[in-house]
Design a protein that fits this description.
The structure is a homotetramer of 251-residue chains. The first copy, chain A, has 251 residues and is an alpha+beta fold. The first copy, chain A, has helices at residues 33-39, 48-64, 93-110, 112-115, 137-166, 171-178, 183-194, 203-207, 224-227, 240-245; strands spanning 23-30, 68-74, 77-82, 127-134, 209-213, 230-233. Chain A is globular and about 70 Å long. The two termini of chain A are 39 Å apart.
Chain lengths: 251, 251, 251, 251
């Protein structure tokens, strides 16, 4: 930046570097997406095309910022996990979260016509973002488990809610009907009343999307194409199996 | 957010609310725009269409966040000033800066075809953002003066640089030639060698863009259309005249 | 600090410099002083000697840190106001608050025998501290007014409470009796029942202590002795009069 | 605190709670102790009585704040390690560091006559303090190793320096003589010139002081007296042996 007698105002900028050796999670969340979704006539409770667009934007972010080891998305939110040793932008929280949310949003708008070719973008979408530190693997995995448990709870609830509404109940009646009910009750309701087997819903709806780099193979660990391949899965990341299968993510 | 045994991880989120009664500036800055500009064949040193797109995106942001009193843009950066009494999102820095940068970027991509109809978007652009507090009008005005002084210094330098390059010098030679030169020298160079009168360059290039709400008129202070009208100007905001003409901005 | 391979741990220290051009208030507060007071048999509700000791310690702090412009004390708390332009220790909050609370506590213990010669120190006293920024004179003065209003409210309440207790009521009964009562009622109670004219209580009890540097005189503004003289008063600092009389404090 | 219309100023206080699940180190450091030491004629380079006083004050702090698991002191500094799960004062950095430094300083002044009975306190001593987070055992142990390595380096240097000065060199000459020398050279110098075997200096000088709670015994783990017993040692805490012997400290 050019120098002038006004340059002293730069001293008002605070240092917001985050603690070393902690995992840094940047989580994005759509602003006013209930309205945004309705305005574009997206499917309820989940729209496969819109979710694919989220995944597409997430991959754009991960290709740009290679220190992101894993990302998890559901509904209108996405979490990106920077490696605990990243030195990117001096670990400044505002730099990391602003670049991630900006690139994600740009990709979301840019690739909208690819994923929703028959739906014109009517409004300018936007996302908020925050950066959170987790000091060890346990708390990081609990963070990701928290988001995936949220996916399940929300999807099950919303599937019931929209089934009730589509069968003639008002939104308020549906809400009242579901208040305080447990998982087993909701599964039963879906099955008995609406012939929906919750466990047969697309995995993307029930598990969200997990995006990570393909593990290096023993045959050719240095292969460029391998190293740069992203995997998008809709698997359980709460249990140990996933982490035992892909130990390179947290290593 | 749905509840689960993992919900404790929310406690790792830090409170980043900024000091009350301070002006909050959110400044965006294009990431890698030298390359981005070259990839799209934009005019050097300034591209009127690209600057118009920045102004267009800035207006989208101001229409959404009414507590922004004034914005200033130049080149690939834009600063937005939230009123010192704003209570938006509890004054949390990450919320404010992420929403502004996300909406700005989304609008930038969405309106690209309107402002640059003959240039296809080849890359996903992105911006970083930071939030800075200024505790009084003096420091806020010095901040804005800092950015406008920067506009002048950069535009004058870049105009010389590209004139030299376009006349056959290499980039390195041009840089060497201009090293340590003063304003008067550069004006003289432009005029003598290239018949460019610096002061006749478009005001947008020399002064940047200042965006603010039209002041209420005495005739009809409550007129909705008036209140919602944004003005985009390319005037001096360093001297007092501008602030005396529009006292409502800082009031 | 000596260098070694472990020196990298210094990078975990966060920068906690506070915003420039804001007044910095460091407020100390006695930890567990209800018990501490009882253990030493101090007078209820206010002990002149103990308050003098607080003032003595405050002066020690102000003699050491000349950028403190004014201090205000009541009961077991003291607030110190660093000038908004202070550059002391790079304005790092932890440096400023730790040095102030450490020196204050040291002086409190050191000068205890001077102020309470007949009472042996039985326990090690300690104070917590925090640093708070105020961006303008209005909010700083409101802060000081807040503390002085607190002094009045507490002293009046405690005077009533102890008068009731000393006249035979239990602590619980006294509390119940005073619950929700207004200023006028309490003044009346003191006067009618206990022949105490609240306004004749020592000003130190009702107004707290305000400590500041003697203003420079026109006769000899550079006189060293004058410049280094501290004034301890028990005056109203809520109204304008005090600030009009001593404009040098905030200048 | 009593309520009044000024109470809004409390909103200017920032939340400074530190990240959960991190070790919290509060380090104190004497302000101007070179002068303070000289003013009281303490022994050079290390004064056993003054170091004992530091250890005494540290024990006072640990008896008050039971979540401190270990402390390490050398020269005029002391570090206190709060357990990573402590919830004390909501983990607010300013609360923790101010209470520790205040209590430490109070104890330092209070117990001065016990440890230095023949030396009257001439000045009010004070300490600064900071709080630093360490996210795992490795970085915490490296922090403590950093301080103990510092102890060795400083003590060896200072022992040489004062031996040279006491033998007739000026301070500047001694400094010049030692500039850039290695450990082996300094040990040799002490031994050859001054008949000092560095390794026979008191362990307190070479290793500093480590203070921690006695481990629970299998015979009577709930014995109150045991649980409340502090150990003060001058042992190596850089190597693993100490931590293997006392695994309860970090558990």
């Amino acid at each position: 930046m050019a120098n002038s007698k006004y340059g002293y105002v730069k001293r008002f900028e605070a240092d917001d570097a985050v603690l070393p050796e902690c995992w840094i999670v940047v989580r994005l969340d759509g602003k006013g997406f209930t309205k945004f979704t309705a305005a574009h006539g997206l499917a309820k409770p989940s729209d496969e095309r819109a979710l694919s667009l989220m995944d597409r934007a997430a991959q754009e972010v991960m290709h740009e910022f290679r220190d992101i080891r894993i990302a998890f998305g559901e509904s209108d939110e996405y979490s990106f996990v920077f490696h605990k040793h990243t030195a990117l932008y001096g670990r400044r929280a505002s730099k990391l979260l602003s670049l991630v949310v900006s690139l994600f949003t740009a990709a979301y708008v840019r690739f909208w016509p690819h994923c929703l070719p028959d739906t014109e973008l009517q409004q300018t979408p936007c996302f908020d973002a925050r950066a959170v530190c987790y000091p060890n693997n346990k708390t990081l995995r609990d963070y990701l488990a928290w988001r995936q448990a949220d996916t399940h709870i929300n999807t099950q609830y919303n599937t019931c809610y929209w089934a009730l509404v589509n069968s003639g109940k008002s939104g308020k009646e549906a809400q009242e009907y579901l208040k305080g009910t447990q998982t087993a009750f909701k599964n039963e309701l879906l099955y008995r009343e609406f012939k929906i087997n919750y466990n047969e819903l697309p995995a993307r709806f029930r598990k969200g999307s997990v995006v990570f780099w393909k593990p290096p193979t023993s045959l050719d660990p240095s292969s460029r194409s391998q190293k740069h391949a992203l995997m998008v899965q809709h698997e359980d990341i709460i249990k140990d199996a996933f982490w035992e299968q892909y130990p390179h993510i947290l290593s």
